[in-house]
Amino acid sequence: MTEEAAPEAGRPRGTALAEAAASAEAVPVTPPGARHLILVDGSGYIFRAFHALPPMTRPDGTPVNAVFGFTQMLSRFLMDHRGSHLAVVFDAGRVTFRSDLYPEYKAQRPEPPPELVPQFALIREATEAFGVACVERQGYEADDMIAAYAKHFSEAGGEVTIVSSDKDLMQLVRPGVQMLDPIKQKPIREAEVVEKFGVPPDKVPDVQALAGDPTDNVPGVPGIGIKTAAQLITEYGDLESLLEKAAQIKQPKRREALVGNAEKARISKKLVTLDENAPLTAPIEALAVKPPEPAMLRKFLEVQGFRSVLARMGLGEAAGDAGTRARNSAVAAHAAAQAVAPAPDPGSTPFGPYETITSLDALRAWIAEATAAGVVGLDTETDSLNALRARLVGICLATAPGRACYVPLRHVAAGGSQGDMLAAPEAAPEQIPFDAAIEALRPLLADASVLKVLQNAKYDLEVLCRPENGGLDVAPIDDTMMISYAMEAGRHGHGMDELSVLHLGHKPVPYDEVTGTGRARVTFDRVPLDKATAYAAEDADVTLRLWHLLRPRLREEGALALYEQVERRMIGVLRDMEIAGIKVDGVELARIGEDFARRMAALEGEIHGLAGRSFNVGSPKQLGEILFDELKLPGGRKSKASGAWGTDVTVLEELAAGGVDLARRVLDWRQLSKLKSTYVDGLQAAIDPQDGRVHTSFSMANTSTGRLSSTEPNLQNIPIRTEEGQRIRQAFVAEPGHVLLSADYSQIELRLLAHLADVPALREAFATGQDIHARTAADIFRLAPEAVDREARRRAKTINFGIIYGMSAFGLAGRLGIGPAEARGIIDAYFGQYPGIRDAMERLKEEARLQGYVFTSFGRKLWIPDIGAKDMMRRAGAERAAINAPFQGGAAEIIKRAMVRVPGALKAAGLQARMLLQVHDELVFEVPEAEAEATGALVREVMEGVVALRVPLAVEVGTGRSWAEAH
After folding, report:
1. Residue 962 placed within a domain
2. Most buried among 27, 112, 629, 782, by the most CB within 10 A?
3. C-alpha angle 287-293-296 in degrees, rounded to nearest 5
């Protein structure tokens, strides 16, 4: 079985691959500058990987399943490494000092399987290829070397994490030294040791000496198990004290066993006690984390045929085009080069002056300089913020901090227009002819050996790829906006100006300063070249400086894997989706608009009748006067600023809940008005006349949770379950001969809740395909499953979803139309039935208070800025955000991971489907009718297998001529 046939890491299977991912993601975060040694029990991992993975061979027939599992683990650690030092520890041989003490020690163990023997050397070769320290010493076991390094490192003030579930290593746990169980993804500290052995870590050898270990042929004392041994050691203090007083023990059999086997117990303790004074094979600093040498690592992985590991390490792609593979290779090479030759200080060089490039010779000189540098800041200047309509006006390059230029391409005379340029070319400023400049730049932008660094790369890539702008392919790339976002979502904005002030202490030239404002504003092609250069070249300079500062922090912040595997790959995926767009039936939209207008007019008549007179329903001021001045309704609140009555949705919903029909009708009118203006009139204006499609723009770094947002137009807020929302979705259609396919994660946030809180009942319900809300109702209301009616299920559904958002008893009371006391009783019953959920919520709030952020299940750090606010309302809101962020963020992470995999999977299967939209937990595709079934099956397989949770993921797939039919 080759690697291609092996299950992917992250699929829902209890393999060594899942252990590897869990190990890497569960390692505690190390603050920058702190010392943290991670010791991986390599020998234990080899056997676990060998037995967990199916047989695999490399191209020459050599077995490599254990090697593959091992390299998966190492690549995860290096891509998302949280420590300052890392070593893999191996057994050097079967003969150790323990063999001299007791020849029968481990003598019964069989020889390793023949298929595993050739893999031992390959695994050591893998460790060397990854640039990771390898620790082993003749005469000592791996556990002894782990003990020795842990002692030396912790005594020097560092933190140690031992990646292993081996019970023999638990004796090493103490302040500054913990273990990490790679299977259960949980740390092992003193409490876990006491739970397993009944005694603290320093007494574990005494308990093991009494109980023995048949696996290793440690004799122990016959008839005494772990529980009895723990009781005896707790009572007598230690093994030697117990043996000295063994004759006084009242139980005859126990007394005889201890007296008769005292020497065996003493020998057993020597066998199980790890030698913390074993000589070190290398100094501590030799274990410092360093990047692998790209050529050496690439060669090793290529020989083994491990293409997915090549992709993870940025050295290739398991599936993808040559440009993507080149991008990853160049980034890895630059990262390695940075470790050898530190980048210049981004803040030590003045900003400008910059050069304006108006001749081909000068441009070629800059291209040569960029090629030699191997990394270049890149920015575009255009005449529109809409990437799919913007004309390329100029290109900026930066080769080092303070060293940047601007290449004008389509500038006209200041104050002129494009028409002026065509009519009087001599009026335009001197610049290189557009086609000549593009052809000169094309090889540089496609050069696999030169990394192109951009800010908000998706925009520039869309502009440059369009034929009218040169049809340029840009690769490999890095994006400073997404680097920042991967580390600090929710902490601050990620626009270039804000990042520049935050990290460089420099405020860039404002756009308004060069283009003007209001009626005096001009498009960038009319800006004089001196001003254009000062503004545009600075953008490329700032972007490159930010890259030098932020890129190295990705590893320190534990965000490297998130950026490399998800955020950067999403750039190309979203670019293609935006270019594709989705077809909208303008005729159907017009019909919907007419219907909405008729219904609004009818509602206006009802509202006027209820009010007793005509007024402008769309005027909050007039509505407030009607409700609170004329009708004298209770609950009105005036604004301190304007003195007008408040009539927002909260006010109207309170009135409607109190039986005020007028308020309910106004809410209905407002809903229709919003839908008509945003999704009927707005969509009509957004239809591209050339292809009849709407091309929304996905914002990648706007939310605090990692979710995408959609603008121009916003397609993510169309109501899902209302009749009006379905009508609007009816206008989104497929091209002739095609259908739209919707693939929607089912109850993904509830599944994440069951996973994160580890609630057995919910896990069972999801695993067996039960109705989760009916199961919850049965549990919290103490009902038999057949006794759960619609009302009980409705209440359970409300709290199931509300709990993810930190809903209070007051909020639940409002949702269910019950009193606060009854709502509190329901919440108490819920937490009483599922105590793990309350524990998880309290843990998240505490993490946010202590750290200022929480994590998703996949390692994304989500900042909660107001968690320490003095204002109680702001602080309570932050606590709700801390509870909700891991669920929203986790769901966003899952669908993003699916999105980066689906296009390659479709291409590999020879399917023609195009991914068009992402709406929270749903993906929408346009699919040839004949391929609908095969595409649906493949998309479901990828989406359900993209991560491994404690509960299965489920995806609902539907197809139809319109989005409404498919949903």
Report:
1. no
2. 27
3. 115
How is the chain split among helix, strand and coil, in percent rounded to 5?
Answer: 55, 10, 35
**Contact predicate 524/518, CB 8 Å:** no
Same domain, 14 and 80: yes
* β-pair type (738-745, 955-960): antiparallel
Same domain (yes/no): 395, 470:
yes
Type of residue numbered 556: E
Does the predicted TM-score (pTM) go above 0.70?
no
Q: Name the nearest CA neighbour of 416 among 428, 404, 402.
A: 428
Q: Are strands 159-163 and 177-181 parallel, antiparallel or unpaired?
A: parallel
State CA 860 to chain mean position distance.
5
Q: Judge whether residue 66 has pLDDT over 70.
A: yes
- The contacts of residue 242 (CB under 8 Å, 6+ apart) are 206, 210, 232, 233, 236, 258
The tens digit of pLDDT for each residue in 504-523 reads: 999 999 999 999 988 889 99
Q: Which residues contact 334 (CB under 8 A, 6 or more apart)?
A: 374, 375, 451
Provide the CATH number for the domain around residue 813.
Answer: 1.10.150.20
| 3-class state of residue 114 by DSSP | coil
- List Cβ<8 Å contacts ≥24 apart for 599-604: 599/672, 600/669, 600/672, 600/673, 600/676, 603/665, 603/668, 603/669, 603/672, 604/669
Say whether pLDDT at 207 is over 50.
Answer: yes
Question: Which of 273, 301, 323 represents a domain boundary (last residue)?
Answer: 273
Tokens of 729: 């979705």
pLDDT in tens, 549-590: 999 888 778 888 889 889 999 999 999 999 999 999 999 999
CB-based contacts of 627, cutoff 8 Å, min separation 6: 633, 636, 645, 647, 655, 660, 662, 663
Q: Mean pLDDT of all residues in the chain?
A: 86
Beta bridge partners of 861: 855
CA atoms of 485 and 506, how far apart (whole Å): 20
Query: Do 183 and 209 belong to one domain?
Result: no
Q: What is the CA radius of gyration of the chain?
A: 33
Residue 69: which pLDDT band, with cuts at 50, 70 and 90?
A: confident
Task: Show Cβ contacts of residue 857 under 8 Å, excluding neighbours closer than 6 positions.
Answer: 752, 755, 756, 886, 890, 893, 949
Largest CA distance in the chain: 113
Going 775 to 779 to 780 to 782, the CA torsion angle's sign is: positive
Cis omega before residue 346 (within 30°)? Answer: no
CA within 13 Å, CB half, 502: 14
Q: What residues contact 712, with CB distance under 8 A and at least 6 apart?
A: 386, 686, 696, 697
Q: Reduced to 3 states, what is the DSSP secondary structure of residue 258? A: helix
Residues 176 and 240: beta-carbon distance below 8 Å? no
Give the pair of three-digit tokens for residue 445.
């932008």
Q: Chain centroid to CA 269: how far?
A: 46
| pLDDT of amino acid 252 | 87
Residue by residue, DSSP assigns 469-493 as: GT-----SEEEHHHHHHHHHBTTS-
Domain count, the chain: 5
Contact, 740 vs 581, CB < 8 A?
Answer: no
Q: Residue 787, SS3?
A: helix
Backbone CA torsion sign across 566, 569, 575, 577:
negative
For residue 761 the two structure tokens come to 């009942």
Q: Which two tokens stand for residue 42?
A: 């390599």
Q: Please indicate, yes or no, if residue 733 is contained in any of the structural domains.
A: no
- Give the range among 179-183, 299-303, 433-437, 698-702 with minimum mean pLDDT: 179-183
Q: Where residue 340 falls among pLDDT bands split at 50, 70, 90?
A: very low
Question: What integer pLDDT is reported at residue 432 of this predicted model?
Answer: 96
Question: Distance between CA 549 and CA 509 in Å, rounded?
Answer: 21
Both 814 and 773 in one domain: the answer is: yes
